[in-house]
Design goal:
736 residues; alpha/beta; Rossmann fold; Isoleucyl-tRNA Synthetase, domain 2; 4 domains; four-stranded antiparallel β-sheet; four-stranded mixed β-sheet; 23 helices; 27 strands; elongated; RNA-binding
Length: 736
RNA sequence: GGUCGCAUAGCUCAGUUGGUUAGAGCGUUCGAUUCACAUUCGAAAGGUCCCUGGUUCGAAUCCAGGUGCGACCACCA
C-alpha cells in the first residue's frame, strides 16, 4: 500500500460497482426509493448538485447496505424557458433570433444542442460517486413521459380543472412568453412619478393624475378617485379629455384608490395594470371588461406600442414612447423620484409587462386541499427549519396556475381549435418572421394572405398566443371531425411536467416499479424550489394517485463560499465541483458538503474544509495500512467492544432519522479520535489484538462507506475482500 | 407591508426529546516525531451560547418582548 491515499483510482472503482449490478434494486420486500431531482439537461453541474448527490447517495447506500430494495432514479429536465433562453443567447451571438426559424427547426436545433450537452451532467454525477440506477434514467421529453403529461392535462380537463381565460398575465416581451406568478422577480427601482393634467370637458379646470407610466395614457379608459375624497367628489361623473388624443373618459369612484398617494387621482389603464384591470372588472355597468381591454391595449407582445396608441406612437418601444410623451407634455418639470418595486423577468431580468392574453389555467384549490390535509396527518413530513410553514402559506394563498408558455422548447399542449366558420370571431395574435406583430380577426389574416394552419404547424413563423373565442378540444391526436383544426402553439410550463416526476418516472418505467416504489421514501432537494417544484409534485402526485408522492422531504440549503457569501459569477467565487474532485477526491468534497449541515439551512464550504476531509480519507487509508502490517494476539477487549456497539447504534439512529449532517460529524470524531488516536495506540501498547482491531475497522469502513464510498471501498479491497465480486457497497450494515 | 428563519470560540458552523466541566473543522501558541499517517501526534489559549424578562430542581435548548442580520412573498398608480 502507498504511504498516502491516492484518489485517482475512483473511476475504476465506480465501474466495478456499476458492473456488479449494485445500483439496481434487489428483490427484498422492503423498498427504499428516491427520485433524483432532474438537473437541466444542458447544464454542467454546479456545487449545489454535488450537495444533493452527496446527501442522496448517502441515504441510498445506507439503505442498500441494510439489505433493502433500493431505487435511486435519475433523470434530466428539458427546462423549457431556461434552455430556450440559453439557446437564444447563443443565437444572438451569431446575429440570429428565434424568428429566423420555423417551429420545427428551432425545436430540433435546441434538441441537438441539449443532446450534445446532456451527457456531461451524467458523467459528472458518476464522478461524484452517485450510485444511481442509470438503466432507469428518464428525460422529461421522452415520448412516454410526454404522453403521460398530456394525459394528465386531459384528466384535469375532464375533471373541469382546466380553463382558458383572457387575463392580465406576466409577459416578458424579450423572452416572448408569459409566466406564472412564481416566475416573476421583483426589483426595487427608482423611477419618476409624473403628473399629468387631464382637462375637464366642461372647461372648469383639470384633474391631475400621478403615474410612473405616462406612455400608457393612450390606453386609459377612466380616471378613478376615492369616493370619500372631498377634493374630487364634485367631479365624479364628469368627463375629461385625454391629452395627445381627442378621446373623452369619465371620472369614476373606486374605494381602492389611496387618497394619500400622488394626487389621489389614478388613470385607469386596464390592459396594462392589474389594479386598473380590477377596477374595470368591478364596474360591470360601465364596462365590458374584455371588449374594453381589447380596444385599449396599447402595448403589444413585441413590447412595442400598438396602433391603438396612434400613428405617432405605433411601433415605438415602451421606453421611447415614454420619453416622447414626457417631452410633448413637458412632464419633466413636475416629476418626482419614486422608489417602487417592478416585476422583472427571472431569466432575462427585463421589465415584465402585464398584458391581457388568453392562457390556460389550472384551478388549484381542489389540488392544494388534499396536500394540506396530508401535512396535517403527517403523511408527508418536511425536514428543514421553518419550511413547512412556508409551504402551508403557499398552499393556502396560491392562485390559479397559468400552465401555458409561448415557447417552442417544451411539451406542446394537446389542445385543438376548430376555426372553421369562426373567421369573424377568432382573434389571432402572432409575430411574423420580421418580428412584426399581427393582431386581428382571422378573416383579416386570411385577407393579408397568411395561412393560419401553416403558421400554427410551424412551417413559416414562430407564433405567440394563437386564437381566442373558440371552443377547444383536449386530446393528443388531431380530431377526426370535419373542420379546420389548429393545434395550440403553446407548450406546458416546465413545472407542469416536472411536477409529475415521481409518478411519471415510475409509471413509464419497468413493470411493477410504481407499485413497489410509490410513494417514494425521500424527496431531497434545494429549499429554493419548494414552491415551484415540491408543492407542484405534492399537488399533482396526490391528484393522480390519491397518495403523497414521497413521505419525507429533506431540504438542503444553498452552498456558500468559505466566507458565507453566495456564489456568483460577478464575485468570482463560483467553484466547479469537478475541479475539487480532481484535486481532493470525491470523498473529500462529499464529506465537506455534508458534515455539520442542517436541513433548510445554508452551508458554507471553503477549500480548507475540503482539504481537512481529504486528510480524513488519508487517515482511513493509513489506519488500514497499519492493520495490514500489525499483528497481536491479545484476547477481546470489552471496552472496545461496547464502544464499537455504541458507535454503530448512534450512527444508525442518526441516518434512520435523516440526520445526515450529525451522522457525518459524529463518525468523523469517533473514527479519528476514537479508533485512531485511542485504539490504535492501545493496540501498539498490546491491549488489543489484531482480529478485534480488524473487526472494528470493518465496522468503521461500513459506517463510513455511504459518506466516503471510494476510499472505504479501496481499503475494504485491501484487507477484507475475498474475491472480485466481494464489494463493500453491497456488504451488510453492522448490527448491534 | 406579510411570512419564515438566523444570532454559540478569531472564521465557518453543529448541538437530537431541556440534564454533569458547551462541541467540530479551519486558524493561533507551545512541544513531539526514524515507531500507520507532517495530509501526523500531544498539550494549550480562546465562549456573559445577542439583550431583557418568564416557565423549571435545572435553559444554548421552551415562552414573551427587544435589537441586529438574512431569505422568500407582495398589483398600490
Amino acid at each position: 500500500m502507498d504511504k498516502a491515499y491516492n484518489h485517482t483510482t475512483e473511476s475504476e472503482l465506480y465501474k466495478r460497482w456499476e458492473n456488479s449490478g449494485a445500483f439496481t434494486p434487489n428483490d427484498s420486500k422492503k423498498a427504499f426509493s428516491i427520485i433524483m431531482p432532474p438537473p437541466n439537461a444542458n447544464d454542467p453541474l454546479h456545487v449545489g448538485h454535488a450537495m444533493f448527490i452527496a446527501i442522496e447517495d448517502i441515504l441510498v447506500r445506507f439503505h442498500r447496505m441494510k439489505g433493502e430494495s433500493v431505487e435511486w432514479l435519475p433523470g434530466t429536465d428539458h427546462a423549457g424557458i431556461e434552455t430556450q433562453f440559453v439557446y437564444e443567447k447563443k443565437l444572438a451571438k451569431d446575429n440570429k433570433s428565434r424568428f429566423d426559424f420555423d417551429r420545427e427547426t428551432l425545436y430540433k436545433n435546441i434538441w441537438d444542442y441539449v443532446e450534445m450537452n446532456s451527457g456531461v451532467a451524467m458523467t459528472q454525477m458518476k464522478r461524484l460517486g452517485a450510485s444511481a440506477d442509470w438503466g432507469r434514467y428518464k428525460f422529461t421529453l421522452d415520448p412516454a413521459v410526454v404522453s403521460f403529461v398530456c394525459e394528465t392535462f386531459q384528466k384535469l380537463h375532464n375533471d373541469k380543472l382546466v380553463y382558458r381565460a383572457e387575463k392580465l398575465v406576466n409577459y416578458c416581451p424579450h423572452c416572448g412568453t408569459a409566466y406564472s406568478e412564481l416566475e416573476v422577480d421583483h426589483e426595487e427601482r427608482t423611477d419618476k412619478l409624473y403628473h399629468i393634467d387631464y382637462p375637464l370637458t366642461d372647461g372648469t379646470g383639470v384633474i391631475t393624475v400621478a403615474t410612473t407610466r405616462p406612455e400608457t395614457l393612450f390606453g386609459d379608459v377612466a380616471v378613478a378617485v376615492n369616493p370619500t375624497d372631498k377634493r374630487y367628489t364634485a367631479l365624479i361623473g364628469k368627463k375629461v379629455k385625454l391629452p395627445l388624443t381627442n378621446r373623452e373618459i369619465e371620472i369614476i369612484a373606486d374605494e381602492g384608490v389611496d387618497t394619500a398617494f400622488g394626487t389621489g387621482a389614478v388613470k385607469i389603464t386596464p390592459a396594462h395594470d392589474p389594479f386598473d384591470w380590477s377596477v374595470v372588472e368591478k364596474n360591470k355597468e360601465k364596462f365590458d371588461l374584455l371588449e374594453t381591454v381589447n380596444k385599449h391595449t396599447v402595448i403589444g407582445i413585441n413590447g412595442k406600442m400598438t396602433a391603438n396608441a396612434g400613428k405617432d406612437y405605433e411601433n415605438l418601444s415602451v421606453f421611447k414612447a415614454r420619453e416622447k410623451v414626457v417631452a410633448e407634455l413637458d412632464l419633466e418639470k413636475n416629476a418626482k423620484p419614486h422608489i417602487h418595486n417592478v416585476g422583472i423577468c427571472y431569466r432575462c431580468k427585463r421589465v415584465i409587462e402585464p398584458l391581457p392574453l388568453p392562457q390556460f389555467f389550472v384551478s388549484v384549490a381542489p389540488l392544494t386541499k388534499p396536500v394540506l390535509e396530508a401535512l396535517d396527518k403527517k403523511d408527508v413530513v418536511i425536514h428543514g427549519t421553518g419550511r413547512e410553514a412556508i409551504l402551508r402559506t403557499w398552499l393556502t394563498n396560491l392562485r390559479d396556475w397559468n400552465v401555458s408558455r409561448q415557447i417552442v422548447w417544451g411539451i406542446r399542449m394537446p389542445v385543438w381549435h376548430n376555426v372553421e366558420g369562426h373567421e369573424t370571431e377568432v382573434s389571432v395574435n402572432f409575430i411574423d418572421a420580421k418580428g412584426k406583430q399581427h393582431k386581428g380577426l382571422l378573416r383579416d389574416l386570411y385577407a393579408e394572405g397568411f395561412d393560419l394552419e401553416a403558421i400554427a404547424t410551424g412551417l413559416q413563423q414562430i407564433i405567440v398566443p394563437i386564437v381566442s373565442n373558440v371552443p377547444f378540444v383536449v386530446q393528443t391526436e388531431k380530431p377526426s371531425e370535419e373542420g379546420t383544426w389548429i393545434q395550440e402553439t403553446d407548450t406546458f410550463d416546465t413545472w407542469f411536467s416536472s411536477g409529475q416526476w415521481p409518478v411519471v418516472t415510475l409509471k413509464t418505467g419497468n413493470a411493477g416499479d410504481f407499485e413497489k416504489f410509490y410513494p417514494t421514501s425521500v424527496m431531497e432537494t434545494a429549499y429554493e424550489i419548494l414552491p415551484f417544484w415540491v408543492m407542484r409534485m405534492l399537488m399533482l402526485g396526490m391528484y393522480l394517485t390519491g397518495n403523497v408522492p414521497f413521505k419525507d422531504v429533506y431540504l438542503h440549503g444553498l452552498v456558500r463560499d468559505g466566507q458565507g457569501r453566495k456564489m456568483s459569477k460577478s464575485v468570482g467565487n463560483v467553484v466547479n465541483p469537478i475541479d475539487l474532485v480532481e484535486k481532493y477526491g470525491a470523498d473529500a468534497l462529499r464529506m465537506a458538503l455534508v458534515m455539520g449541515s442542517t436541513p433548510g439551512q445554508d452551508k458554507s464550504v471553503g477549500e480548507p474544509t475540503i482539504k481537512g476531509m481529504r486528510n480524513l480519507s488519508n487517515k482511513i487509508w493509513n489506519a488500514t495500512r497499519f492493520l495490514k502490517e500489525f499483528s497481536g494476539e491479545q484476547p477481546e477487549n470489552a471496552e472496545l467492544k461496547t464502544w464499537t456497539l455504541k458507535v454503530v447504534r448512534q450512527t444508525t439512529e442518526h441516518l434512520d432519522k435523516l440526520r445526515v449532517g450529525q451522522a457525518s460529524e459524529y463518525l468523523y470524531g469517533e473514527f479519528w479520535h476514537g479508533y485512531c488516536d485511542k485504539w490504535i495506540e492501545e493496540a501498539k501498547k498490546g491491549s488489543v489484538g489484531t482480529s478485534q482491531m480488524e473487526e472494528v475497522l470493518l465496522v468503521f469502513l461500513k459506517l463510513l462507506h455511504p459518506f466516503m464510498p471510494f476510499v472505504t471501498e479501496r481499503c475494504y479491497q485491501e484487507i477484507f475482500s475475498q474475491k472480485e465480486s466481494d464489494l463493500l457497497i453491497t456488504a451488510a450494515w453492522p448490527t448491534v
